[in-house]
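Dear support,

I submitted the protein below through the web form. The confirmation email said the job was done, but the results page showed an empty box. After a refresh the structure appeared. I'm attaching both so you can tell me whether what I see now is the final result or a partial one.
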Amino acid sequence: MKQDFFDFPKLVESTHSPAKIHYQIGEFQTQPSCALVIPTNCDGVATLGMLADMNARFAYNQQIYQAACANHSVRIGEVLSVKNPQGPPLEPYFIINAAVKRHWDDELTLENLAEALEALVVEVDRLGLSCVSLPVWDNKTTLPFKAVNDLFESILLKLPYVEWHIFTQKQCFEETND
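What the results page shows now:
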């Protein structure tokens, strides 16, 4: 079942903290943020779609990510943070690779997504970040958007004082309304 994205929330605020989730259409790589989160696999394969685009822009991240995969140190539900070697004031300061699949062709599951989000919150807190951009994990997913959105809200809003920018491509909105 595909989600009707015309009901996509624009802003969700926590009732317990200043944390916010901003839902946006567009390329998450262009949002000024302290960190960009890349949904990855444990194979080190990143030659298609969004991952290929990220490799072109952040080649240093790809080298570190592939080496970590070759050493079998990338596991589902874990994150790998890579600091921007050019340093401030260039953004993002970090690329955070969040493993959500074992193999690039595997289906995304709510369990894997929840594990990755929990690890992401711990890492964002450890790094002291205030603004993070990420995609809606997998534009080809068959997961119901409500379930994915519920995970975002229940996990990401635990971290006070962080603004989360969650992106999907406009094309995704149009395709899901058939």
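Response: this is the final, complete result; the empty box was a page-load delay. Residues 110-127 form the longest helix (18 residues).
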